[in-house]
Amino acid sequence: MRPYRAALSWVAAAFCTAAMPAPGAAADLLVFAAASLGTALERIEADWEARTGSDIAISYAGSSQLARQIELGAPADLFISANGDWMDHLVAGGLIDGQSRRDILGNTLVLIAQGRGAAPHDALAAGAMTARLGEGRLAMALVDAVPAGIYGRAALVSLGLWEEVSDRVAQADNVRAALALVASGAAPLGIVYASDATAQDDVSVIATFPEGSHAPIRYPAALTAGARPEARAFLDHLGSPEAQDIFAQAGFIPAGT
């Protein structure tokens, strides 16, 4: 097994283990949230629990994985996806309360390199990215299933770079696992959200993908069809000025911007 593949397996396993609620843990609400929301949503969760006395369990993973778990009967009360397609899929299947759906956030797609001091680089020009990669790999979330990977592939195609790097991509189960590959040095470059780069001290943004190179990045949130009544209040809170400020500090684009 090549070193980057071993690192990918280890990072993905560690992330998934840490992200899932403890077996048998009782909670007033169970939230399924895209992995990129982790840092900000943990702060919002703590504030909400302190304010209301209720207990929230949050499971972080790629939006595709979470959607499939809901299809299989996972008892989530609230689903926050990193793109609209997986939410549309669950609405069509009658598993989401479509009337509760709303976009709560936006984001930006960036190219990162290891180290806080990495200098900006014209890596989005033809030939520049492969030159910067050297013998290494480009870390991305799954390009056919996970929103960050889908956006990333679309951006590379739009810029005429996909054919150049497609055989150099190390695909991770979610965007935070791709981030960890770069932070650990297992991959020299990675494509993540701007909020992910903000959450990690060991990476730097060296380029930002033009908005027109991919579909707008939106985070829809909605109650599941079987959501407990308490879930609506937390969903409403995600759009409050307090929560939106926390998201903005974490690098997200506030709703409506």
TrEMBL record:
Keyword Metal-binding listed? The answer is: yes
The leader peptide range reads 1-26
Q: Which residues bind molybdate?
A: S36, S63, A148, V175, Y193
Q: Which domain of life is it from?
A: Bacteria
GO MF annotations for this entry? metal ion binding; molybdate ion binding; tungstate binding
Provide the Gene Ontology terms for cellular component.
outer membrane-bounded periplasmic space
Q: Which UniProt keywords apply?
A: Metal-binding, Molybdenum, Signal
| GO annotation, biological process | molybdate ion transport
Q: How does it assemble?
A: The complex is composed of two ATP-binding proteins (ModC), two transmembrane proteins (ModB) and a solute-binding protein (ModA).
UniProt lists the family membership as follows: Belongs to the bacterial solute-binding protein ModA family.
Q: What is this protein called?
A: ABC molybdate transporter periplasmic binding protein ModA
Which taxonomic lineage does the organism of this UniProt entry have? Bacteria, Pseudomonadati, Pseudomonadota, Alphaproteobacteria, Rhodobacterales
Chain's gene name: modA
